[in-house]
Amino acid sequence: MSAFRQSLKVVVFPFRAAWFVVLIANFIIVSAAGLIFASFVAYVVALIFSYAFLPAEWTQALWLSATGLYAHSFWFKAATITFSALLFLPILRFWLRRDPVADTTRERQMVRLNDDLIAARRQRELRAQLRA
């Protein structure tokens, strides 16, 4: 039994090591994404604070630094576009959605009209049969 456990440990160890490497890579990627998100949130808070409490020159200096970074850094441009997309996609998902109450009301009206048309056609057929 001891030999079986040793051989099992030898076989399982590379898979555990690979899984540990995957977990470390995932942690690094998620940490980087979190840092990018936190930096943009901090920048937005700094802009709001500068608009509210600081002189206009300081706010202009903040915007100037952002435009300079955007013009010269591919990574800042990519992060800005990604942040904007991640910020606006949930808003667009709810904003462009139709109203479920209105859809339900419209569907009920269509069913009612359809039922009325079916009833009118049956009455016409019944009157035609009675006349004949």
Describe the structure.
With 132 residues, the protein is mostly helical. It is 93% helix and 0% strand. Helix 1 (2-53) packs across helix 2 and helix 2 (56-72) crosses helix 3 (74-95). The longest helix has 52 residues, at 2-53. The chain is flat. The mean pLDDT is 86.
Q: Report the portion of residues in β strands.
A: under 5%
- Low-pLDDT residue intervals, each spanning 5 or more residues: none
Distance between the termini: 96 Å
Radius of gyration: 33 Å
- The helix content, as a percent range, equals over 70%
Task: Count every beta strand, where a strand is a DSSP E run of 2 or more residues.
Answer: 0
Number of helices: 4
Broad structural category:
mainly alpha
Molecular shape: flat
Order of helices and strands: HHHH
Instruction: Characterize the biggest β-sheet.
Output: none
Index terms:
132 residues, flat, 93% helix, mainly alpha
Summarize the topology:
Blueprint: H1 2-53, H2 56-72, H3 74-95, H4 100-131
Helix pairs in contact: 1-2, 2-3
What is this entry, summarized?
The chain is an all-alpha fold and 132 residues long. Helices cover 93% and strands 0% of the residues.
